[in-house]
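## Example record

The block below lists the input lines for one assembly entry, exactly as stored, with component labels intact.
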Amino acid sequence: MITSPKRDVIIVFLSQEMQGGILLDISSFLERIGEHMYDVIIIGAGVSGAASARELSRYKLNVCVVEKEEDVCCGTSKANSAIAHAGFDAESGSLMAKLNVEGNQMMAELSKELDFPFKQNGSLVVCLHEEEMPNLEKLYERGIENGVKDLRIINRKELVELEPNISDEAVAALYAPTGGIVCPFGMNIAFAENAAQNGVEFKFDTEVSGFEKKEDTWIVKTNQGDFETRYVVNAAGVYADQFHNMVSDKKLHITPRRGDYCLLDRTTEGFVTHTIFQLPSKYGKGVLVTPTVHGNTLVGPTAIDIENREGTNTTQEGIDELISKAGTTVKGLPIRQVITSFAGLRAHEDGHEFYIGEVEGAKGFIDCAGIESPGLTSAPAIGKMVAEIVRDLTNAEEKPDFVGVRKGILDPKTLSNEERAALIKENPAYGNIICRCEMVTEGEIIDAINRPLGAKSLDGVKRRTRAGMGRCQAGFCSPRTIEILARERGVDPSEITKSGGNSKIIVGINKDRI
Amino acid sequence: MLRQVYDIVIVGGGPAGLAAAVSAKRNGIESILVLERDKELGGILNQCIHNGFGLHTFKEELTGPEYAGRFIEQLEDEKIEYKLNTMVMDISDEKVITAMNREDGMFEIEAKAVILAMGCRERARGALNIPGYRPAGIYSAGTAQRLVNMEGYMPGREVVILGSGDIGLIMARRMTLEGAKVKVVAELLPYSGGLKRNIVQCLDDFGIPLKLSHTVVDIDGKERVEGITIAEVDENRKPIPGTEEHYTCDTLLLSCGLIPENEISRSLGVEMSPITSGPLVNECLETNVEGVFACGNVLHVHDLVDFVSEEAKAAGKHAAEYVKNGAKHQPSTAKDIPIVATDGARYTVPRTINPERMDEKHTVRFRVGDVYKNCYVSVYFGDKRVIHRKRPVVAPGEMEEVVLKKEELAAFPDLSQITVKIEEA
Amino acid sequence: METRELICIGCPMGCPLKVEMNGEEVSSVSGNTCKRGDDYARKEVTNPTRIVTSSVIVEGGSLAAVSVKTKEDIPKGKIFEIMKALKGVKVQAPVHIGDVIVSNVADTGVDIIATKNIF
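Predicted structure tokens for the full assembly:
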């Protein structure tokens, strides 16, 4: 039986629980009395943390992900270029280069296994000045050294055939057919759901404040209590240096580097079909113009170093800069079709490298830090690497019952009209359109709410189903989505938030203050 | 998949769709179906609970729901079929409509004529490029209007409104009456796009300041809005540094323009006006796709619902004629004459007029691009000025009209262009 | 003599009106360019009235709230009193356009009536 110095407490709790008739949830019960021990606590449910969790869930390990926000994919992972980079950018020989190319190569198969949107659309680095051709060649050579496949330099003629709207200034381009685009929410959520499916626990609204080193374990201190674990994985994005620095004298320093973006309406679909970068030069770095997997056009990012690690506000200067630069590589960009602008923070470590591994002098504390672009592309490989590090440290065995396949939310738009009719017959909620712009049905929203790690907020629904992601930006569907969320979760509509915390949509009822 | 056949299918059961349906019925068509995506007929009028509707149509001041109620009653009296909670997914160029709802699933309707009456939507924050955070507490005025008026919920306590269009003004009053504090209404332009009456009765009555030539330059608050910074703008509508004023508030309402909802029209191949974002139509309100008509805010954003009803009535009549007479519904040996809007006039509806097919009188509606005082609204047949009407003031917020007469046009047999313009005194 | 300044709401022109008051009596209106301005000014300074619209909770119906209005104009100064009187008012479905929701609201002698059918 349970032996513990807290025996009195146990007895009290037992009697309370037993009065209810049954003791259902052993783990939550044990947790309440502080007797729970994890093998691994992962800090952060962004794409690195979720990928690590998914890969760790292959092993017989008791894994928990703690996340300060109310959902997965709430930080850097939700606001970026959504690109699966080919891998010619990172310095040859770096971990960044290695994981980028590996991640890119894993992406196609993984997107099938975990059912998230990914498309290998190819990328183009456009050279606008003849005298910069040597730089384009250097980039080509670096790509070859990094192991990027099928890379080649194409002339203007071929470039125009690939992209009719390319700038008249463009002289040549580096063409990487392996470059791709991915739904960043889709990938992050897929990793997390698959991890949860395989037994990983997720604690949301749980903010880590510090660590205490025990003999062979760590106490992770949070706003929701203390948790004990044998291993910590620090996948805390822009906060990873702070946690690292709590346990190590070899300091890391992360600067939140803000990137502003503009997203254009799906009516611009086909304006460009490849991801178009500008060759960095003395004229500047330029911004990329890319299709998204959902048919929008994305323009961005800026790169502005800031202090505030929550500073995801766009600025007038940032947006102005984007709009002025966006026309450099392409002509006639329909910038008036912008439906939203947003900003994300890259976790830029001074050394511009991924730091993945057990921290020297902090046994059992594993960094997954400095994960900036190409972090999204690298995520599959990062997850694998983190899992292998933990496996080697723990000698954990593989779970025989690991399920590596996850089914995403059914998108009725992918069905034929007949199939769709049959689906509605079976479940009429699929016949009720809630989001008119993106044509999202009630059925999809209900699925998003009720599946493992389901959506709790409007943004949670949006990231999972695209309801509210379209041209009216949730103006029409938000009252209806609130209604569905409240009904499915069994709470009052006033409890529903935009994105957790204090982000309430409804603050009272009419005349309540008069 | 279920496939039905109707003479006329009307997409949208708001004021335009209702009036079009009733008119088509009264012009002899029995087989009519209205498809409405919401759970009731009436469209946006259901949330416009303020009064001021119907002075032209019913010679009395009604609230939005009452105005809608009158037309719904007519629809019921005429026993016109309609389907609620039904979304039109697609219309083929053969006029086969694919639609969907919970009860019927996916189904198809073959129509002889289609009337587009989908209305419009509000311009969202994203399209305005307002910098700052993206917290909860930012609503289009119409979303807030729905929450307050139809669901009884307060979306905020302390409110800043950007845009002085009528919905923004109306919501300033509604929020105030329900117990919120509206701190300021900021308008980017040097004049308000709203009706004078609304400025007086929605703002002045409650001491709410209206700041013209001002815009929002920052939104504060990570989770919920905590404050809004507005600044004055110069003649290029760029914020002037040093003029920033901060307002502590939890809500930003946006009333910055309406956009016709023409996604279905576009995929159907309907030719669009870049000015109105609505279809280009002839004097029968028929688009370039034969048998497809448009009316109401999907065609161009109206200022008064009465004009929507009037336009929709015409669309219903012409669609009925089309069904009865087929493609020869508008026999004419004359060519369509283009109507060109210029010098302050931004567009016209219709875009062309046929001098043989037209009624004895035809009202051409248009909007101006700026405020003009003591000006003339002029119409030219070729080089000849035929209308020169003095107007003390015209403003972009109000629709203007000129009436063309068949007999006058008959005097210009070789006319190749009609021009509508604003001329300074 | 007291002077009051108003903006005419008769048309988009928005004439700035000056009303000379002699106690409760209007002695002159200026600034208007038409008769409507004069009429509006006289009414607005002596007896400004408004229609008040709001919505109240409806139970057992297809919608959560029903829109309402004062059946006739009420004195402008009574607007907030009327809103207070509507606080907490709940009605049962069905409701029909014209149904009296509150009679003689805030002692104005005017009823609050429904402006929408709710079933």
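Chain C has two helices and ten strands. The longest strand of chain C covers residues 16-22.
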